[in-house]
Amino acid sequence: MSELLVTGGQVLRPDLTVERADVLVSQDSGDIVAVDDPGTLDGDDELDASDGLVIPGLVNAHTHVAMTLLRGLADDKPLDAWLQEDVWPVEAELTADDIRAGAELGLVEMIRSGTTALSDMYFEVEEIADAVDQAGMRAVLGFTAVTVGKDDEAARSDLEESLDVARKLDGAADGRVRTTFQPHSLTTVGEEYLREFVPQALEDDLSIHLHANETRDEVTPIVDEHGQRPLAYADDIGLLDGDTYVAHGVHVDDSEIDLLAETGTGVAHCPASNMKLASGMAPVQDLLDAGVTVGIGTDGAASNNDLDMFDEMRDAAMIGKLAADDASAVDAGTVVEMATANGAALLGFDSGRIETGANADLAVIDLDAPHLTPAHDLVSHLAYAVHGSDVRHTVCDGEVLMRDRTVEVFDEQAVRERASEHAASLVERADD
Ligand SMILES: [Zn+2]
Questions:
Q1: Which of the four, 52, 106, 122, 405, has the lowest number of CB atoms within 10 Å?
Q2: Which CATH architecture has domain 58-347?
């Protein structure tokens, strides 16, 4: 039996209090086995958390991790033009090897910034699952189906693949990989396909992850065509469910917020992407007040442009206040919960809290920095002042992924070089 002791630091507890404590984790079960007074626990190996704060590993509830290859390739355009003119032409050239290289880069970036779990939407999912396995992280993965612009055969093949991947990869990486069925969005998958394939996913108890109500352009066509709001349309198809979460949920009206709450459907809020693409401001405080589980995601690196969940927490707090026109809305404690416990609840992992019995997924923040001084309120610091680069150690499932800012699960230099090469060759092919 091998046990790791995270010792000498302060610990963020599930009720958001901070106490001096050591955390003992089992590397066999991957669980936290004790949180106790300093000096009372022993482990076979130690992680030094002195001058540090131990927090739950952050949960990135919506991303496209391999899109790191497109980081900075095209900025400053609205969603529709950006997708059609820049993103999709390049994505059409992506090979499995490109996706592996981009995924590894994204996972290294996440480990360095304290993220231990992600929910991803993409393709070549086996490559992403392999990369997650090597990274030692937890992930909910899936193949994203699009039917617009495809003939019936190609459209059906996409949806079949999304079902197949969800069935096949669930439980991969010793159970650290779970899966979702993924219709891309309510406007990019035709109604006849949703009505045929969503019941199949539900029959197999598959969770569902889709984009919804991201921009006004996604709302108007549905209202025009179906005479109902997008989430009412989604509910009519059976998409809204306790195991479903939608990315974005920016343009939702009160009736849709009620529908999300009644059906137990979650929301992955992506504040930086919503701001960068000028998509709008999600009514996050209203969603939370209604009882909707809201997590936080970075979305892909092309619309962010990084995968740092500390940036994302700060953005969520800031835009949440603007959206509510209320400086007390989406407060510091709320965004910390959104990035930890809420995200874990959306993804279905027993993580997101430093507590005996929970998954041993954690990060240690180095507090010994000018921008984290003085330490009046460490929850405030997590929301507003900590950067991803302040993370000293990252642990997932009891295994050390990064120790003293050195990533142990990948050769970081090699990952960066390979990703740069793949990105350069990809853009060259797309330009031809
Ligand atoms: Zn997305």
A1: 405
A2: Alpha-Beta Barrel (3.20)
